[in-house]
């Protein structure tokens, strides 16, 4: 996540007007953001061996870390950041953290500890339960002050989790709230609770959320086919549009049913097809699923390259395998070709 800008560019007076989208930040692969609990010694001990096997390692300080372990998690992350070769700060695997929420008693100490200690290694800070632009602007200002104090050259980027109804209503302003904005993830568990959805799962579908085929006099009701619908389609589509508008990256979030690798792959693929660039991994086996799903397939790349070649100067229309291709389908193909190039770089 290298940038031509320095941390000083972020230390600026208040009320600077419209934020600049982060379009000049080159995409670094972040197909799988693998969560670990730095207070869990067994998990933390495996981190050095995971460098190079996953795009992002994220030290989680928020939910899933017990209140009594918050300080140990923070300190564990500092130790890992300071001692792990190749992790963060332009290394082979990015180092992210998910800090505690802004309304928690731990957020301020999280940021005040991490930035001076491992600010040169931390690529992205994930902020949970973001409600509006003001949350991001506060984090942006605080980071700017701490970076200036620590003499950091490289700005730490910010990633928001979309997991409140108010956050969804404000998603466009959140995406554009600061030039530090790197991306947004869906937080389906907190969002479901905040919206008063009647589900008890962490991401994924629900067998009760379905449509049934129309009645047929020759068919008993019970055998009429049903089709399960995607609970998260609306939110993901909204998040993708807001991110595209501001030149930042959309991500699926957690898929809690670790054993159901098939449903996990399906859910990740829906998000990929809708425009997401990556997802969270809560277990090492989800890393492989994410890497596969969020990399375009060989067949898709081959087809996309054929369309690019057939379209010559990129204008007009051609027939390929009986299908019409034109300027617009060329643009879709270029999305896949460019993604393949970025992942291969
Ligand atoms: C993630 O934080 C979620 O609430 O789903
Ligand atoms: Mg959450």
UniProtKB/TrEMBL annotation:
Keywords in alphabetical order: Lyase, Magnesium, Metal-binding
A GO BP entry: oxaloacetate metabolic process
Coiled-coil residue spans: none
Superkingdom of source: Bacteria
Chain positions covered by the region annotation Disordered: 201-225
Cofactor(s) for this UniProt protein: Mg(2+)
Entry's Gene Ontology molecular function annotations: lyase activity; magnesium ion binding
Annotated residues for binding of substrate: 98, 163
HpcH/HpaI aldolase/citrate lyase domain: residues covered: 33-201
Binding-site list for Mg(2+): 163, 190
Protein name from the UniProt record: CoA ester lyase
Naturally occurring in which organism (per UniProt): Nocardioides luti
